[in-house]
Amino acid sequence: EPEVTQTPSHQVTQMGQEVILRCVPISNHLYFYWYRQILGQKVEFLVSFYNNEISEKSEIFDDQFSVERPDGSNFTLKIRSTKLEDSAMYFCARAGTSTDTQYFGPGTRLTVL
Amino acid sequence: AQSVSQHNHHVILSEAASLELGCNYSYGGTVNLFWYVQYPGQHLQLLLKYFSGDPLVKGIKGFEAEFIKSKFSFNLRKPSVQWSDTAEYFCAGANYNTDKLIFGTGTRLQVFP
């Protein structure tokens, strides 16, 4: 199964700080996604990204969130001013097409203090 | 609204017991369905998927699932579980015209030798 790596594996930050979570898909897949899982809750879709544009985003993905693929490789999720409720596991996924299987990374555990 | 529900939150079995994990979805139109597994400390991995065709889908590690349209169900089965099947199992769905995965809450499976 093709790999997706995510960095860092664990990020601790103070409330109000900016964080950038990184995803490095090891393939030439073009469709990228961010999901999150708050402890004890279900995995939730945040955003899908194709051709350097957001394809779809959830109501969770407000103005505090942004995504980009600045160097054509890393796919990043930025949270501008973190809140306590942003504490969660963030998963990156990628796929070859919009209807293809999504392959997930190991996740980044974000802890906001 | 689109949703996926898993009714078994925690299942405990002995090795060699048979397994069935429930998954129900509420979607209008054509739906793609998935089962993902998350072994302790690892990332989400695809077990199997249903897009169309034969409603009985076979996946990796001896797992299978049956798509029953009349019951809006996609239950996961395995005739004889092993200790190594201990993991969290997630059912997910996506409408045919979107790649946004909607996950169920997950079922934690513990298998004792």
In short:
The complex is a heterodimer of chains A (113) and B (113). Chain A has 113 residues and is mostly beta strands. Chain A is built from no helices and 11 strands.
Number of DSSP strand runs of chain B: 12
Shape of chain B: globular
Order of helices and strands of chain A: EEEEEEEEEEE
Low-confidence stretches of chain B: none
User: Largest interface by residue count?
Assistant: A-B, 25 and 22 residues
The largest pleated sheet of chain A is described as: 7 strands, mixed
Mean pLDDT score of chain B: 92
Can you count the helices of chain A?
0
Work out the radius of gyration of chain A. 13 Å
Approximate shape of chain A: globular
Helix content of chain A: under 10%
Give the termini separation of chain A: 35 Å
Approximate helicity band of chain B: under 10%
Poorly predicted residue ranges of chain A = none
Structural features, described:
The complex is a heterodimer of chains A (113) and B (113). Chain A is mainly β. Chain A contains no helices and eleven strands. Chain A has strands spanning 4-7, 10-13, 19-25, 31-37, 43-50, 53-57, 65-68, 75-79, 88-95, 103-104, 108-112. In chain A, strands 2, 4, 5, 6, 9, 10 and 11 form a seven-stranded mixed sheet that branches. The radius of gyration of chain A is 13 Å and the shape is globular. The N and C termini of chain A lie far apart (35 Å). The model of chain A has no long low-confidence stretch (mean pLDDT 90). Chain B is mainly β. Chain B contains no helices and twelve strands. Chain B has strands at residues 3-5, 10-14, 19-21, 24-26, 31-38, 45-50, 56-58, 64-68, 73-78, 87-95, 102-103, 107-112. In chain B, strand 8 and strand 9 form a beta hairpin. Chain B starts with a strand and ends with a strand. Chain A binds chain B through residues 1, 4, 31, 33, 35, 41-45, 48, 55-56, 58, 91, 95, 98-99, 101-107, and chain B through 32, 34, 36, 42-46, 49, 51, 90, 92, 96, 98-106.
